[in-house]
UniProtKB/TrEMBL annotation:
Subcellular location as annotated: Membrane
Protein name according to UniProt: Monocarboxylate transporter 14
The species this protein was found in: Camelus dromedarius (Dromedary)
Entry keyword annotation includes Isomerase: no
InterPro entries: MFS, MFS_dom, MFS_trans_sf, Proton-linked_MCT
GO molecular function: monocarboxylic acid transmembrane transporter activity
């Protein structure tokens, strides 16, 4: 009997393996198409009902709250940076490493999060990331020095943020085709809302309860990332390694087997002898069946464990194979020359946006503008205008007569100009105008997934965007400490902005030069 069940189990597992393998490597699933059998047994394509509608807008909502909780919190770290300077009495350059590590690790781990997505799916990856991010905030409340914060807040919370952030971006890209730029723009406005809300929240919590209790409370708030992850339903059955219906393949249960093996005998005995004298015979048969039931139950439990292990092994191997081939195989992303140029641009892009957020509170104190800034913080101006910038740039980029690359590059050059002008402003009104320009022009971040997809295609978006945000992470990791180090030497932040703006300008010119000979980068480079 045991051999029979083992053979039956192997057949079921093999069937599921080949069926899931065929689904996993069907490229149409990634772009929202399902296969249906027609009467002639031919495969036809049917658009998925949730593309550009239905549950797609729940993906936008989920991604919106992920941006509030992750990117918004990180952009508000200037408030905590001031508290850490007063608490630990370390240099500005060393203290700035805490914020930079958190931002940098969130983005640098992008390529490795792509492996998690290929193996576990976006939903599970985001939920695990929410738990890890919350743990990092809570542990940081007990920090005894800056170096402790490097581990708990910079690495632990940063890695958790990365695990929740990348799935939020990828899922919006999978659910939208016609209005992808607008959808990404709406979802990423959570960064602006989050920056405004988290700045106010952290200021209030630090004033009322101290920075340690503020981080503890923020850790509890970050658990909402798990709720956002739970909303990331796979687009098609089998996608992301999950079954959206929550159903398992039909397996022969222990009790059904027992009923076939024992009830048939008992039923026959009852029919042959219907009198009272047959009760003893039935009791003896039942007593003999008890050990068999226990043995069958153990066998079925073992089979379920073996099935789960087998499925997990197949999923991990498949996910690693897809991840490895995307980076190092014949279809490597690095064979796309325009994409490589885009990576070099990303290496310097993010610091131009991050440095003002980290150091503006300190700059305000140096210029004796604290009273005016307390009424309406400059970082909040960036955050509010950033919201409108993302939506407006997304709408403009979706217009059929306008190239998304033209919008993207114009916004970048406006941001560079703002970075150059900011050190020249020493009044609150002047800084407010420049901060508004920074906020609006930095709305191009909503276009980054769109231009990345334009370069590599939707099927490689997870891996490609992981590389781009990794390059952004290096920029965010090195930018603020560099600005703090320059201040420690020169006692002013001016040179930090000038050098950063100059490097950013060079990279914009490099990308524009590389893009000039081609009209559609996705069609002119090998993938």
């Amino acid at each position: 009997m045991g051999v029979f069940f083992v053979l039956m189990f192997n057949e079921v597992v093999c069937h599921m393996y080949f069926r899931n393998s065929w689904k996993m490597y069907t490229s149409h699933e990634d772009i929202g198409y399902d296969f249906e059998d027609d009467p002639k047994d031919k495969k036809t394509l049917k658009p998925h009902p949730n593309i550009d509608g239905g549950w797609a807008w729940m993906m936008v909502l989920s991604s919106f709250f992920v941006h509030i909780l992750i990117m918004g919190s990180q952009m508000a770290l200037g408030v905590l940076n001031v508290e850490w300077l007063e608490e630990f009495h370390q240099s500005r350059g060393l203290t700035a490493w805490v914020s930079s590590l958190s931002m940098g690790v969130t983005l640098i781990v992008g390529p490795f999060i792509g492996l998690f997505i290929n193996t576990c799916g976006c939903r599970r990856t985001a939920i695990i990331g929410g738990l890890l991010n919350s743990l990092g905030w809570v542990l940081s409340a007990y920090a005894a020095n800056v170096h402790y914060l490097f581990i708990t807040f910079g690495v632990a919370a940063g890695f958790g943020s990365g695990m929740a952030y990348l799935p939020a971006v990828v899922m919006v890209g999978r659910y939208f085709q016609k209005r992808r730029a607008l959808a990404q723009g709406l979802s990423t406005t959570g960064t602006g809302f989050g920056t405004f809300l988290m700045t106010v929240l952290l200021k209030y919590l630090c004033a009322e309860y101290g920075w340690r209790n503020a981080m503890f409370i923020q850790g509890a708030v970050s658990l909402n990332l798990c709720v956002c992850g739970a909303l990331m339903r796979p687009l098609s059955p089998g996608l992301d390694g999950e079954d959206p219906g929550g159903k398992e393949p039909h397996v022969l249960r222990a009790h059904s087997t027992e009923s076939v093996g024992s009830s048939g005998q008992m039923g026959g005995a009852e029919e042959k002898g219907g009198g009272p004298g047959t009760e003893d015979a039935v009791g003896d048969a039942a007593a003999q069946a008890c050990p068999e039931k226990a043995a069958l139950g153990k066998n079925m439990c073992a089979l379920r464990v073996l099935k789960a292990v087998s499925q997990l092994t197949v999923r991990v191997r498949r996910g690693f194979r897809d991840w490895y081939s995307g980076y190092f195989g014949a279809a490597s992303l690095f064979t796309n020359r325009m994409f490589v140029a885009f990576i070099f641009w990303a290496l310097f892009a993010y610091s131009s946006f991050v440095i003002p957020f980290i150091h503006l509170p300190e700059i305000v104190n140096l210029y004796n503008l604290s009273e005016q800034n307390d009424v309406f913080p400059l970082t909040s101006i960036i955050a509010i205008v950033h919201i409108f910038g993302k939506v407006i740039l997304g709408v403009v980029a979706d217009l059929p007569c306008i190239s998304v690359w033209n919008v993207f590059l114009m916004a970048n050059f406006t941001l560079v100009l703002s970075i150059f002008i900011l050190p020249l402003m020493h009044t609150y009104a002047g800084l407010a105008v420049i901060c508004a320009l920074i906020g609006f022009s930095s709305g191009y971040f909503s276009l980054m997934p769109v231009v990345t997809e334009d370069l590599v295609g939707i099927e490689h978006l997870a891996n490609a965007y992981g590389i781009i945000i990794c390059a952004n992470g290096i920029s965010a990791l090195l930018g603020p400490p560099f600005a703090g180090w320059i201040y420690d030497i020169t006692q002013k932040y001016d040179f930090s902005f000038y050098i950063c703006g100059l490097l950013y300008m060079d990279n914009n010119l490099f990308v524009m030069t590389a893009l000039a000979p081609v009209k559609n980068p996705a069609l002119c480079f090998d993938k």
